[in-house]
Amino acid sequence: LPFMDASRMWFVIVLTGIGIGVTGAWLDVLVKWLADFREGHCVHGFFYNQPSCCSGFDAGEICTDWQSWGQYLDIQYILGQSLLHSVVYVALAVVFAGSAAILVQFYAPYAFHTGIPEIKAILGGYVLDAFLSPWTLLIKALGLALAVASGLSLGKEGPLVHVACCMAYLLSGLFKQFRHNEAQKRKLLAAAAAAGVSVAFGSPLGGVLFGLEELDTFANESDVMWRGFVTSVIAAMSLQYIDPFGTAKLVLFQVTSITDTWRAFELVPWLLLAVAGGVLGSLLIKLNVRVALYRRHSALNDWPLLEVVGVSALTAAISYLIVFTRVQTSELVANLFQECDPSKTDYHGLCNPTAMWENVFLLIVTALLKIALTAWTFGMMIPAGIFLPTIAVGASLGRAVGLLTQGLQRAYPGAWVFSSCPPDPTVPCVSPGFYAVIGASAMLAGVTRMTISLVVILFELTGALSHVLPIMISVMTAKWVGDACGKDGIYSVWIAMRKYPWLPPVAYRDKGETAAQVMTPIERLVIIEDGCTLGELDNLTRKYNFHGFPVVRDAELVGYVTRDKLIEFLFAREPATLSTRRCTFSSRRSTAEDNLENLSNLVEEAILQLRKEQPQELVVDMFQKLNLRQILFTHEGRLTGMVTKTDIVALLNLHFPHTAALSELPGRP
Amino acid sequence: LPFMDASRMWFVIVLTGIGIGVTGAWLDVLVKWLADFREGHCVHGFFYNQPSCCSGFDAGEICTDWQSWGQYLDIQYILGQSLLHSVVYVALAVVFAGSAAILVQFYAPYAFHTGIPEIKAILGGYVLDAFLSPWTLLIKALGLALAVASGLSLGKEGPLVHVACCMAYLLSGLFKQFRHNEAQKRKLLAAAAAAGVSVAFGSPLGGVLFGLEELDTFANESDVMWRGFVTSVIAAMSLQYIDPFGTAKLVLFQVTSITDTWRAFELVPWLLLAVAGGVLGSLLIKLNVRVALYRRHSALNDWPLLEVVGVSALTAAISYLIVFTRVQTSELVANLFQECDPSKTDYHGLCNPTAMWENVFLLIVTALLKIALTAWTFGMMIPAGIFLPTIAVGASLGRAVGLLTQGLQRAYPGAWVFSSCPPDPTVPCVSPGFYAVIGASAMLAGVTRMTISLVVILFELTGALSHVLPIMISVMTAKWVGDACGKDGIYSVWIAMRKYPWLPPVAYRDKGETAAQVMTPIERLVIIEDGCTLGELDNLTRKYNFHGFPVVRDAELVGYVTRDKLIEFLFAREPATLSTRRCTFSSRRSTAEDNLENLSNLVEEAILQLRKEQPQELVVDMFQKLNLRQILFTHEGRLTGMVTKTDIVALLNLHFPHTAALSELPGRP
After folding, report:
1. pLDDT score of B668
2. Contacts B626 to A, Cβ<8 Å
3. Cβ-count burial of A478 within 10 angstroms (0-12 exposed, 13-18 middle, 19+ buried)?
4. For a Cys staple, A666 with which of A109, A511, B7, B108, CB 3.0–4.6 Å?
5. Is A637 at the interface with chain B, CB within 8 A?
6. How many CB atoms lie within 10 A of CB A152?
7. Residues B101, B382: contact at Cβ < 8 Å?
8. Do B625 and A220 touch (CB under 8 A)?
9. Residue A597 has pLDDT above 80, yes or no
10. 3-state SS of A489-503?
11. Residue A610: CB partners within 8 Å, gap ≥ 6?
12. Protein fold of B264-488
């Protein structure tokens, strides 16, 4: 019944969309509450966060219902108050981060990190069901809220994609149609991943394009793209309906009141920012790899909890000292993106021209600090996304450059470079808030090496077509500079380090090599000879854990048999008979013959066969596009070798020095 | 020098984007001027169109500078004036359409029709350079302006994509890098096609998604997608910069002042519209096929000019009688999308509640008339897009349903279905303008069977996230209903009728068939035997115009040689020697031997070989994803058969009854 199949599919898709929207909203509320708890509490009840506690007051009034911990404990001395506040701030950060780490380490080791590398591998055909278990879903969501609230340098974007995929996996388990069909399941996961991005950024189209560009999922199948779009829109609408911030806005940070036009001279600071984004993005990736390698090969490997506690304490202690880092990262970004508007409160004097140098200095310190902390945090035993900290670094730098440009223009309004500015000095010419957007997009491009999805996500934030061009230029420049400093984005690097079987969708060009250079020749292959004993087969399955084995008769290829099928077959036989009975894989030979077991129905005969003279790039192309697991090579019917997906992955990762450096599974050192 | 290659590529892309934006703007201006010329002229000079002639006047004032033809010739009697107006209206329509047809027929036969089927085929690997010649570019652009101004039932969207591709092709010819690399050229064309849609609808993201969904171009290659996005944005910005309508808006019809919310009961009329869209869309496709077949097999085939003149006269005569069809189609759509607003002029009493029944009747007549006219017009010897007429049909129907719903709600405001409406009767509850949008999206989905790109294009028109859900539902429902009435969209139907080698990106599932069922067995293949005489080769190339021939030695496959290479080789030989000299394709045999020509360097040895037991769906999948031209089948090194792209296209078009019905080239009956 194709109609029932389609209905079930849409049922899962709509439910996943709603589920992710609700989860996203719930996470926001939880994080806000936990984060506010680090500063004080509400006299009406501890379960109110600060805005809902003070909702009855007007903007100008002082909210007395919300008490800081100093007020609550009635400490009179300012020094004592400050001390108490900082101690509570740091202590709760450690408690939150520590609980998240305990949850992850003991209940769901797969809930650590961002999850996007694993999802890329899964969507590429890797089967890793434990990664999508309901337990992982719960721990990742809860741990994420705790980790974000602890003020560590991490974001919720990537983990939210993981949560979305877990949810789709859970819902797909309701129907047999999906349980036993990996391809169908992958299509659902692709749609869910798009919805995760949609909720994380409030950008449904950005979610679809993220799925297309980074997850490489919807290739060649527009119905999958359509499902991803539907899920994204439903998720975004659910989030908007719940409206966790009470602002009727989809996103935490929205760019408001940008000026209509930009001037040509601004391209110079923007290009500088783009170059800085590319360089610093590469630096962040390199630092992150260093830290990951150090963690693996030092005592930290055995004490992940201690590491989380230590880093969160350090992060909280340093963050408390700097005004920009003390608040939640999302709030910082929102303020940096905000243009100066006399009718609104000025966030820490960012709009005060006399405080320019202090602000620039503090912003640059913030950016450098965030780079260092993020490089360490991304990879610890907690759920951690890299998008938001990257945006924060870029926005800080961008705002700093914007302030400098604005200062320059105000100091020399008559200079010829500024001649395109309006002559009236009270009309602002340079918008530092948009510089923060440019900086963020450049930094994101440097770290993730994405292009179109970043532009669309930031376009949906700003909403002005006229400002797409600078964003586009900065993303492209940052990607070029980043690619020159190091070929891979952060997700590809982690995939390579953890050795997931994922093929990057790059166009591979050989230099005249043929498949013969990459294939394992028959001499080094583990093959099954027709006519061997069942005991030999049993040994084979115990000794090697390959996915399967080619079957030959007199060097001529018969087919391919998977290890799972062999084990299943052998399990049903009496152990005593194994060493005497022989097997045949030919359907023509009669089983009536003595001591002959016919295994021909286990064999896949329709396995792809090529000649080893085929060019290497064609072989890579076939693995990339046909989602194959192996190709056998024959010559005049005789097996000459085999190439597996792992060989191709290794071939494409040759340039990266740390491949497989972290290949063991998390939680199992 | 990869850097120089990249620079040239970006140079072409940026220039194409600007070129398309400028062309789009220029076309709009030209069409407006021509169309206004049918009604009157400006006293300051005939080259002003009506808005620029009257630009000095306020909204309320009567513009005396613009004279209708009746005023100009100073005809006093109303009857005489009306007669003159209608005669000029019809006569100029015939003149415009006739000139367009003459241009197309005598100078660029490929400039007829929409062009999208051909572009799909070209992007799928078909080489048809005449279709993209500079001459086609010029005639298509000019003819398009004339055809649109003539008031025929056609739009500029599809032809604009063709124009964009011609422009990219022209610019790519500047560099050797593109001239001799079909794959590189195709990537440029894909980007240009996206930009064409971007300009046609003022929707840069819609352009990218159109490329993804309908043209199936960016699959697996995110850098191509990125280029398409850049081209789209640049084109849209150029258009906005030139601002042909002086409205600072990107699109001709923009949905304004839609209410914030919609009510659940409105889903009932919307679903009705969606079903109607699916049914009428299928009907339009079927009618169009009928007309195309009739045209081919009747006297019309020899008199295309006469057909254009006749249809344009008929269209103009009928259109003049109905108030909604007399104006340009884009203007009609803009007015139908417009919500009623007391501060704006009411377009032909659409907002007048007492005229409801007249309006509903006229709108339905308009929709039916447009369906009939469009079915005939789409395929005549003029440039003609199907998007705009389809939108007009859908918008008319939608507005009619919206008026009816509004009337019902106003008549029974207390009924329980309307309980969600605001109690104050002066506050409008139903927005008929948005019903027109829903109708348009449903009709588009029924005709083109696209999904996500339609939603994005219409989303960029309305801009409200809350209204994406109804558009999504209506598009999906219309597509389902349409698919139930007939499997293919209008572009696929035309591709099949004209027999272009294009593989639909559908997931093909065989019923256990293997490649053996679809391949041409060796007995029926034209093959080259190693050792045949050059005269035999010469005969082969004259007798068959296949792309190439397999080469065998003693039934064993040596390789594949293309016909072009053979012809080139034979051309350089003396005709007299052909019958005596023999050929060898083996590189090992020495050419010193008497009468032996070594052709081994002509042979492609790295041709894809499979066994004929491979499942059919794998073979189809390989053709779809690896962009192959043929696969050879061997068994133990011996050739057993061949499958070409044409075989696979035929296999996938089996269900369509009129395949190849129009397969000859236009202009060459």
Report:
1. 41
2. 618, 621-622, 625-626
3. buried
4. A109
5. yes
6. 30
7. yes
8. yes
9. no
10. CHHHHHHHHHCCCCC
11. A515, A619, A631, A632, A633, A634, B608, B609, B610
12. Clc chloride channel (1.10.3080)
Instruction: Provide, rounded to the nearest whole percent, the portion of chain A with pLDDT above 70.
Output: 92
Is residue A626's pLDDT more than 80? no
* Closest among A433, A434, A458, A461 to A444, alpha carbons compared: A458
Retrieve residue A617's tokens.
């790039």
Name the E strands within B447-602. Answer: 520-521, 528-529, 548-553, 556-562, 582-584, 596-598
Domains A2-242 and A515-652 share a fold: no
Superfamily of domain A2-242: Clc chloride channel (1.10.3080.10)
The closest CB to that of B451, out of A205, A226, A468, belongs to: A226
Q: Residue A637: its chain B contacts at CB < 8 A?
A: 635-637
CATH of domain A515-652: 3.10.580.10
Output the average pLDDT for chain B. 82
Least Cα separation, residue A222 to chain B (angstroms): 6
B212 in A contact zone (CB under 8 Å): yes
Cβ-based contacts of B220 with chain A (< 8 Å):
216, 219-220, 505, 624-625
Kindly list the distances between the CA atom of residue B4 and the CA atoms of A101, B7, B8, B290, in Å, as whole numbers in the listed order.
Answer: 50, 5, 6, 51
- For B164-215, the pLDDT digits (tens) are 999 999 998 888 878 777 778 888 888 898 899 888 888 888 888 888 777 7
Note the pLDDT tens digit of each residue in B32-61: 888 888 888 777 777 777 777 777 666 666
DSSP one-letter code for A654: T
Report the run of H or E that residue A66 belongs to, with start and end: strand A66-68
Tokens of residue B585, six digits: 């394709």
Instruction: Tell me which residues of chain B, numbers 638 to 657, contact chain A at a CB-CB cutoff of 8 Å.
Output: none
| Contact (CB<8Å) A626/B624 | no
The SS3 of residue B562 is strand
Question: What is the CB-side half-sphere exposure of residue B201 using CA atoms within 13 A?
Answer: 31
Q: How far apart (Å, rounded) are the C-alpha atoms in residues A368 and B122? A: 50
The CA-atom distances, in angstroms, between A330 and each of A334, A337, A392, A393 are 6, 11, 8, 12
The domains of chain B are located at 2-242, 264-488, 515-652
Contact A233 B505 (CB under 8 A): no
- Least CA distance to B457: which residue of chain A? A205
- Whether the predicted interface score ipTM is above 0.90: no
**Axis crossing angle, helix B2-37 with helix B222-242, rounded to the nearest 10:** 40
Please report, to the nearest 10 degrees, the dihedral formed by the alpha carbons of residues B636, B639, B640, B643 taken in order: 120
Give chain B positions within 8 Å (CB) of A614: 606, 608
When pLDDT is cut at 50, 70 and 90, the band that residue A544 belongs to is confident
Q: Which long-range contacts (CB under 8 A, 24 or more apart) does B294-297 make?
A: B295/B379, B296/B661, B296/B662
CB contact (8 A) between residue B468 and residue A237: yes
CATH code of the domain occupying A264-498: 1.10.3080.10
Phi and psi, residue B223, nearest 5°: -70, -30
